[in-house]
Amino acid sequence: MHDLDLDALLAGLAERRPRELGRAISVVERGGRQAAELVRRVTRRGQNAAVVGVTGPPGAGKSTLVDRLARARRAEGETVGILAVDPTSPFSGGALLGDRIRMQELYTDPGVFIRSMATRGAMGGLARATRDAVDLLDASGFDWILVETVGVGQDEVDVVRTVDTVVLATVPGLGDEIQAIKAGIMEIADVFVINKSDRAGADATLRDLRSMLQMSEPRGWKPPIVQTVASENRGTEELVDAIDAHRVYLEQSSEKSARRLQQLRLRVETLLKERVLEAANRGHALEEELARGFERHEDPYTLADRLFESAVRAVGAAGGRGGEA
């Protein structure tokens, strides 16, 4: 899309036109110079939206929770952007919708924008593209941006590290999977949700979560645990209140600035990694050097040093033209 008119695209974003929003998100998913310039220009408009990530294991009912949260915000007259992130569909050109079909009534609401996103295989690419997409929705004037991920793997952890409030959804009966959740995302969750809490085992899950929270490192914010039955819209009000309370905490403490600085660090580190890898692999040099090093029985540190030095020279020769990677 060398003929992309960024001025026209930005004008469409300012008017929150779905077509231009969709095109702009496609640009940042692809990455490159146009994505870099687009993000540069929208970032100047500031960051005003409340950004909430909803994550948790498959089957936790995250899509239904997002649907309920969006409806609750719309009932208050606020606009909502939804990014449904699925790192498991790199081939279809878009994310797998799965049970997100139940959000279909929201698609006709002019105050709601929904976009499914999928990784394109680049290291950290999903988190980078998702945060860039958040910037686009923010620049379009959405009051709330909801980011839903499909699981609790490293891709999802990276994604939710780029939001302001992390909602971790679980369900009764996960058993040992609670430990896996703790290892991946427990320490960065701001609100815990036990969804489908009408099921057997809800009380035991509540006890397990409380016990884990008591053993975790103390911090200024004490994450609440909310019990919901999202399919019946039970507990939605309590969840909204918990998210609002965390937003107030962020505003009244230094935590928001600290979190935004950490988000910036993550984004910059991701871009640096992408640029160095791209420079190292220019002209398939990475594969050739790996094959050569393998034949010579070279250790990985020597090989990495040589590739890094070559990559740095390549980036320098490019004149620091940002966004090429």
Notes on the structure:
The protein is an alpha/beta fold and 325 residues long. 50% of the residues lie in helices and 12% in strands. The chain contains 12 helices and 7 strands. Strands 3-2-4-1-5-6-7 form a 7-stranded parallel beta sheet, with helices on both faces. Helix 2 packs antiparallel against helix 5, helix 3 packs across helix 5 and helix 10 crosses helix 12. About 3% of the residues have low confidence.
List the strand order in the largest sheet. Answer: 3-2-4-1-5-6-7
Classify the secondary structure makeup into a structural class: alpha/beta
- The fraction of residues in strands falls at 5-15%
Task: Name the poorly predicted regions.
Answer: 90-99
- Using the alpha-carbon principal axes, give the shape: globular
Calculate the mean pLDDT score and round it: 83
The N- and C-terminal alpha carbons lie at a distance of 16 Å
Largest sheet features: 7 strands, parallel
The percentage helix is: 40-55%
* SS elements, strand count: 7
- Written as H for each helix and E for each strand, in order along the chain, the element string is HHHEHEEHEHEHEHEHHHH
Task: Give me the Rg, rounded.
Answer: 21 Å
Helical stretch count?
12
